Amino acid sequence: MIKRPRLIYSDAFKSYEFAPDHPFHPLRIELAMDMIRYCNWLKDDQIVPPEPCTREDLLTVHPTGFVDAVHAASTTEVNPLTLRMYGLGTDDTPVFPGMDDAARLVVGATLQGAKMIMEGQTDHVFQIAGGLHHAHRHRASGFCIYNDAAVAIAYLQRQHGLRVAYIDTDAHHGDGVQSIFYDDPSVLTISIHETGRYLFPGTGNVEERGRFDGYGFSVNLPLEAYTEDDSFLELYEQSVGALLEAFQPDFLITQNGVDAHHLDPLTHLCLTTRSYVQIPRLAHQWAHKYCKGRWLAIGGGGYDHWRVVSRAWPIVWAEMNEINDYGPIPEAWMQKWQSQSPVDLPPNILDGEDDFAPMPRRAIITDKNRTTLQRVMRDAQKLVAERHTNE
Amino acid sequence: MLVEEIMERNIHYVGPEASIWDTLMLSNEKRVRHVPIVEDGKLLGIVSDRDLRDVSPSTLVDGDTLLLRSTKVKEIMHTNLITVHPLDAMEDAARMIYDHRIGCLPVVQEDHLVGMVTTSDLLHAMVDVMGVSQPGSYIEIEVPDQPGALLEVATIVKEQNTNIISLYITPGKREGYRIIVLRVATWDPRAIIDRIGQAGYTLLFPVCFLNQGGVK
C-alpha cells in the first residue's frame, strides 16, 4: 500500500483571524489551498479535516493559568492587565471572539499530524495552518497563542520516547519552541532567521545554545538583513545536514514560514522561490535518511499573501508528493483572484532568474553570514554528538 | 544618566600597607583590573593589573615572589588621580576615560571613595540606552537638521498607538542632516514606515523599495 502524504485542512481554519486588516490573515491559507487544488496536486482522499485538541493536550506545554485566561478572554471581558501578562490584548496579538477554539484547532491539527504519522497512516503531513512558533509556555506573542509544534513534540516524547528535530526557516526567530525545550537534549531546535537587531522577537543569537542537559541542542543562525538565496542556502545546507547527522533524530518537524521572501513586507530578507523549493526538498531527503520518512511540515509566517504564500506553500506540498514541474499559475486561479488582489500576480509558480535585482553589498553580507555559520558549527556537531552517545 | 546610576559600589580595595603580592592576588581573584588603595575610606592611589605585572617576575624564569611579598603597594601606586563625582554625567565620565586614555575612574564623594566606573560599565549603560536589551522593529530615518523633525516622527508613531522602545539621534552622514534611530514595539511597522515616507523623510532602514507590498 502506498502511503500518500496528507494535508490537514478545512474552512474552519479561517476562524483564526485577529482582525480583517491583520497581517496574519487566514486568506493566506485560502490562497495557497486554492493554488494546490487548481494545480491538481491534491487528491480528495489526501485531505484530512482538523480536530481541536483537548485541554489536557495544551497542559502538556502551557500552564493552567494561561490556558484559563485564553479561554476566559474568548467569551467574556478580561482585565486588560491580566491579558497583558499573558501577552494578549496587544495590537499585534489582540483578543478575538472564539480565540480559544481557533487556537485549539491549530494545535489539534498539528498534534493530529504527528499521530497520523506515528499510527502509520502516512509518512508525511502538511499542517498548513500550524507553525505558531512564538507562543511561549506562559504567554502568547507575535500572532501566536498556543505553541502547536511544542504540543506535538511533547506527545512524541511522552507517548513514543522519540528524539525530535525541529527546523525553523521562518524569517523570525523560533523563540517559543526554543525556550520550551531549552534544557531538553531530546529535542534539537534549529532556527535560521533574520538577526534580531532589526525585528521581533529580538532573540536568536549564536550564543543561545540551550542550557543544562540541553546545552548544544538549541542552534541559531541569525542572518544579515538583505540576505539572498545563495547565502541562505549555504547556511541551511551546511548546518542542518551536519547537525541531523550528529543528532540522529527519529522524527522531523519543519516550520515553513515564508516571510523571508524578497516581497515580504515585514522582514528584510531577500529570498526567492529558489530557496522555497530547496528548503522542503532537503527536508524531505533528511526525513528519509534519518527519520524513516517521518516528516511533519507546518506553516508559519508569510505576509505577502498574494504573491508569496500562494506559491511557496503549494511548493512544500508538491515536494511531499514528489511533484517538481511547477509551471505557470493556473488560469482559473488567476481569474478567480486577480480582481481582488491589490498587486499584480506573478505568472509562474517560480520566480524568474532576473525578477529581482541583486542586492547592494551582497559580498559582505555573504561573508558575514559565512562567519556566523563558522561560529555556530565550530563545535555544534560535537556538542550534539557527545551528549547523544552519553545518554 | 549619572555616574551614581552606573557605578560599581562593591569595591575591591587594599590599604597602603598591603603587599604587592596581596594586591595582585586580589586583582586575580576578583577579576578587577584596577585596585584602589584606601585608608579610612579615603582614596590614596590606584594600581592597575599592568602595574602589578610590571613588577612581577617573568613566568619564563624561576621567579622569586619574596620581593612582591615584602614590598608595599604604596611604593608603586599612582597618586596623580583622575576621579569623578557621583553627580557627573555618564557622558562626561566617558569623555574623561577617552581623553586620558585610562580604563577606570574612581568615584569620590566628600573625599571618600564611593564607587568605581570602568569602560565596561559605560558600555553596558550605553547598550541599555540604545535599548538593545529589548526587542523592537528597527527604523533609521534621515531628517534635516532643523526643529520639528523628531516631533513629527514621534507623532506618527503615537498615531499608530505604538510605543517607542528606544530612540537616539546621530550626526548625519550628509551635511545638514541627522539620523534618527528608532525601535518601535510592534511586529508590523508598515503603517509607521509608510507615513514617515509620506512625510518626506528618507528611510535608511528598511530600504523602502524592498517593501513593495505597502499597507494592505
Layout of SSEs?
The complex is a heterodimer of chains A (391) and B (216).
Chain A: E1 6-8, H1 27-38, E2 47-48, H2 55-59, H3 64-75, H4 80-85, H5 99-118, E3 124-127, H6 148-160, E4 164-168, H7 175-180, E5 187-194, E6 218-223, H8 229-247, E7 251-255, H9 273-290, E8 295-298, H10 305-320, H11 331-337, H12 362-377, H13 380-390
Parallel strand pairs in A: 1-2, 1-3, 3-8, 4-5, 4-7, 5-6, 7-8
Helix pairs in contact in A: 1-10, 5-6, 8-9, 8-12, 8-13, 9-10
Chain B: H1 3-6, H2 20-30, E1 34-39, E2 42-48, H3 49-54, H4 66-70, H5 90-100, E3 104-109, E4 112-118, H6 119-129, E5 137-144, H7 149-159, E6 164-171, E7 177-184, H8 190-198, E8 202-205
Keywords:
heterodimer; A: 391 residues; alpha/beta; Arginase, Chain A; eight-stranded parallel β-sheet; 9% strand; B: 216 residues; alpha+beta; CBS-domain; Alpha-Beta Plaits; 2 domains; four-stranded antiparallel β-sheet; two-stranded antiparallel sheet; 8 helices; disordered C terminus
Query: Approximately how much helix is present in the residues of chain B?
Result: 25-40%
Number of structurally distinct domains of chain B:
2
Which residues of chain B sit in consecutive blocks of at least 5 with pLDDT less than 50?
A: 209-216
Percent range for β-strand residues of chain B = 25-35%
How many domains in all of chain A? Answer: 1
How many helices of chain B in DSSP terms? 8
Strand neighbour order, sheet with most strands of chain A: 2-1-3-8-7-4-5-6
Descriptive notes:
The complex is a heterodimer of chains A (391) and B (216). Chain A has 13 helices and eight strands. With 391 residues, chain A is an alpha/beta fold. Chain A has one domain: Histone deacetylase domain (Arginase, Chain A, 3-Layer(aba) Sandwich). The mean pLDDT of chain A is 96. By secondary structure, chain B is of the alpha+beta class. Chain B has two domains: 125 residues, CBS-domain (Roll); 74 residues, 2-Layer Sandwich (Alpha-Beta Plaits), CATH 3.30.70.260. Helices cover 31% and strands 25% of the residues of chain B. Chain B has a four-stranded antiparallel sheet with strand order 6-7-5-8, with helices on one face. In chain B, strand 1 and strand 2 form a beta hairpin. Chain B starts with a helix and ends in an 11-residue tail after the last strand. The C terminus of chain B is likely disordered. Chains A and B meet through loops of A and loops of B.
